[in-house]
């Protein structure tokens, strides 16, 4: 698997993703600057956590206009796997690759804590290594992780089984306890919890490893033909 | 030169926890006749444009693409021609 | 702030320097050494450089007594931060700094810029910042003002650290009425680097360029250094203009760019320094001074955010997120190109000279021409005489608590905000980013892995104004010893400290006495525990309307773990483990949390700290941990044995039964030099051989209750009830 980690000015989980994929999972991962204009040759594109461009207007709002975005959209539309984590999830909703929006946590506070999640759909490229209904614990660390979509969109999301992870104890007010969901095609996942922070026993346990191992398997199967 | 004054706020159907906190506090402090609080963002842009209509069109596009998240927010604005001092 | 510039003669008669914290005598000293009357810019620079914050004019004689060097120390006090070797070619860099005054005035920005400033000190050495800790002290949260203050300080620290991507892994939050008007906001940053890459803040080599990097200079925080060195009056609302706004996004770019320069362009770089207190003037003057050179700066080249700034304003602005680099002549473009890549301003504003003079030009005119040494070495040093305060000369009789229901007393202490669960505060900090956090907030100390090695660092901050209020010397020693105990309990060997010395007005003999005496205690303890002071700062004048805080040195300590498998936490691991108490317990209630809770004050005399015994106990615990004999370890501090034992049960579902040969009241005694450890039964013989008489077997882990039988009373409570009391208290108090 060859993964690209997009590095926006203000991203701060890009190095952690590279570490998880390269040093722990043992696959290839490189950082790609937000000024890049092509993502050809990659099996997977990761949009990392952080505060892109300071997140001063709205989380992810300025990243939407980064030069790399055209290539990202093209990559996703061609069926390439895209995983947005935390700020990456916010960015993917801003650019319209995922439905809905992430709002301020109902407590109006940033929350960093271990969060039990229920795997709602194990039948995706991002979650095949888990079992449906399984509970895993991943860290969250965000101020704006409160998932919102209008009622019609939400109904559609549920009907299509797009929700992959739900909070066991909703920490932020997300509708339907949504912690992570895919697009309709199933090749783009956005999630607020950080799987890359839970890949080593010493650091936070290994509950997040399944996300990356699922992707290794999916990319091996050649579901997606390179564009 | 034109000056655009832009207000962005949540759509009425979207829960706004900040407004909720303010409203609850006002009620607690005795200002219980305040029935609605709306929290928003205010922007001022100074721009050049061929005419008023062109300025308005451009500001609307900027709001739609950048300043507001149309999934959850609405916007309104005014555009006024500024007196230019040379 | 200054409309038309006063002439040199007018300055002498109108004395505007008084409002910047300079005395008439200091003005006269400056003019005399200069050999003429200084102009407004020159005397303005003096007010910044001769402030306590920059010149340590009152604290220098005390700081000189600190023990700062052992064979591990690569760089001691005097640079942006100190450096200690940790093996495998790596070094740890750390420093703490106070932002008490700015945080009292504008809590959110004050706390945020405190974090931003200390981070710059770390990467100015060439180290990657890997952890932040914060030590906070507030009044009791029983009023809206304090609750708001706590919320905003926590938000400011969190928003800065979270955005820049450095985990906030630990620290402490204390509550006592002494901090109600003067909160303490001390931030510590820790960095890791290759030993070979240490940078110094120096500007050497005639003709080399001074490169200004980062944010533009505005009129924010002008003369903050002398502001930080002045006492508060609640009437001086005008002080509000002295607070700066932080931009963590800009600083993230600055960290990455500066580290890229130190890594890839080391040959082109002569020195680098943060523009902190007294901004442009202190960074450049100190760089010239350390290298023994002079410099000339053209202020027209300084990137400015506002029009018509005077030299005084430009030089003394404390706008945030700015760095000063000295770059070899001819290689400016190579270094600037790195910053341009990050969209950062990088402008040559002057060059190094060999004449030892500090010259500033604006609009083609010389606006300042003074010897560099006049701003540094020639600053006055005051040798104050301390006078023992009356209350210390005649201490109150010993506090004798009456404990009739030990279970109820325990619950009262668990609910006290000093002991209560702080999760609701620290969960607002990202503690995991960088994915090196092995033990995060909430333990005795945080533990982070050092990438590229098999080692880990344990980090803690500690302060205890209650003890210092009763005896500054013993209290100072206890603060150091307790920090070391926190580290030892995780399995780390303490290797060095940084400090923030938070005290009252040093010109008052009784306040100076506290500073002087506590330094004696700190020096003795650091020597005994082999933890040199490698960096730090002083925050004097923590007074409001003449009322000083309890003397509160904050000790930030770093420990080294050479074997990751020995990392130990305070929580019980299994039922059936044996519980040992190390150290002896006496009736130490003076200055205790129990005394503060029951009488709302502290009084009486402290028992001297036996540093030899402290050393022995710490060695015993560390050896036992290193030999893998210990399943859990916890030091005993606030609230004594009962509180420490209860804390070991939290989140484990494992209770304990212990029996102690002491009166029930002593379950809450705060006798120093004690630990609790649990030992799996199959290690009993090995542990007892190692520990000898220092350890007493007091019971076993297991069951749903915490049972502690004392001579004349008992605690017998469900651990779930105790945990609920501990967890719910602070969120409830802060509502």
Defining traits:
heterotrimer, A: 227 residues, alpha/beta, Rossmann fold, nine-stranded mixed sheet, two-stranded antiparallel ribbon, globular, disordered C terminus, C: 735 residues, alpha+beta, Phosphoribosyl-aminoimidazole Synthetase, Chain A, domain 2, seven-stranded mixed sheet, 35% helix, 24% strand, EC 6.3.5.3 (chain B)
Q: Would you mind describing this structure in some detail?
A:
Chain B: Its EC number is 6.3.5.3. Chain B: It is found in: Cytoplasm. Chain B: It is an enzyme of class 6 (ligase). Chain B: One of its GO terms (molecular function) is phosphoribosylformylglycinamidine synthase activity. Chain B: Its main location: cytoplasm. The complex is a heterotrimer of chains A (227), B (86) and C (735). Chain A is an alpha/beta fold and 227 residues long. Chain A has one domain: Rossmann fold, CATH 3.40.50. In chain A, 22% of the residues lie in helices and 26% in strands. In chain A, strand 10 (178-182) and strand 11 form a beta hairpin. The longest helix of chain A is centred in the N-terminal third of the chain and has 12 residues, at 14-25. The radius of gyration of chain A is 16 Å and the shape is globular. Chain B is of the alpha+beta class. Chain B has one domain: Mth169, Chain: A (2-Layer Sandwich). Helix content of chain B is 33%, strand content 30%. Chain B has helices at residues 17-28, 52-67; strands at residues 2-10, 40-47, 73-81. The longest helix of chain B is centred in the last third of the chain and has 16 residues, at 52-67. The two termini of chain C are 40 Å apart. Chain C has a domain at 568-735: Alpha-Beta Complex (Phosphoribosyl-aminoimidazole Synthetase, Chain A, domain 2). In chain C, the strands form 5 sheets. Chain C has a 7-stranded mixed sheet with strand order 8-10-7-11-9-12-13. In chain C, strands 23-25-22-26-24-27-28 form a 7-stranded mixed sheet, with helices on both faces. Chain C is α+β, with helices and mostly antiparallel strands. Residues 234-240 of chain C have low confidence and may be disordered. Chain C is globular, with a radius of gyration of 26 Å. The chains are: A alpha/beta (227), B alpha+beta (86), C alpha+beta (735). Chains in contact: A-B, A-C. The interface between A and B is medium-sized, with 21 and 11 residues.
